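Support request, please re-run this one:
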Amino acid sequence: MPLTPIKILLVEDDELFRLGLRVRLQQETGLEIMAEAEDGETAIELANQIPLDVVLLDVGLPGIGGIEACRQIKQQNPHLPILVLTSHSQKSMITRLIEVGAQGYCLKGVAAEKLVLALRSVAAGASWWDETATKEIRSTFASAPSQSEITNLLTPANPLTHREQEILSLLAAGKTNQEIALALYITPGTVRVHVHAILHKLKVGDRQAAVVVALQKRFIKSDLILE
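Re-run finished. Output below.
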């Protein structure tokens, strides 16, 4: 039985770039471009009118701009994931994207295969932050938070057990299941069980997303991510 395609709203003001994206994404099985928009206002309208699984959103849009469009789309459609695709990587912008509810961030120029993986991950409920954004997130959360960050990113109670925190910290450090098993004197099978529990508790679909969410919510220490 064929899988239901992931329905995408493509928001990009550069016509040639948008055309290239559409052509490339439509080559992928299981992805379907439902609509396109050139500005934030149109994107908000379409997000309210069309059944969608994910929005692929450029930040540098005319009109209200991509960040405000992201905020309004999430306000009106809280469960609709938004993946940001942009040429900008300023720390302040990444922090703002987290605050307005974006689920992911990729720089333009990313390999097509990685963008497709990011779209699938975000549509499945995971977060996706590229290496640049992950470093910025680490830097942001390693420093003392501002009052606005405390207000917008108030840390909930940590749902992870001590063992799960240990395993997630080792995942953040780039360790494999086998290496984690050796470090903690447990079996690889036990590691897999714990990883599954971690993904379930954090409501994400992959390990990278689990690390990012845990950093955002301060469930693990940010200095454990390797450069």
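Strands lie at 6-11, 31-37, 54-58, 82-86, 104-107, 128-129. The first strand starts at residue 6 and ends at 11.
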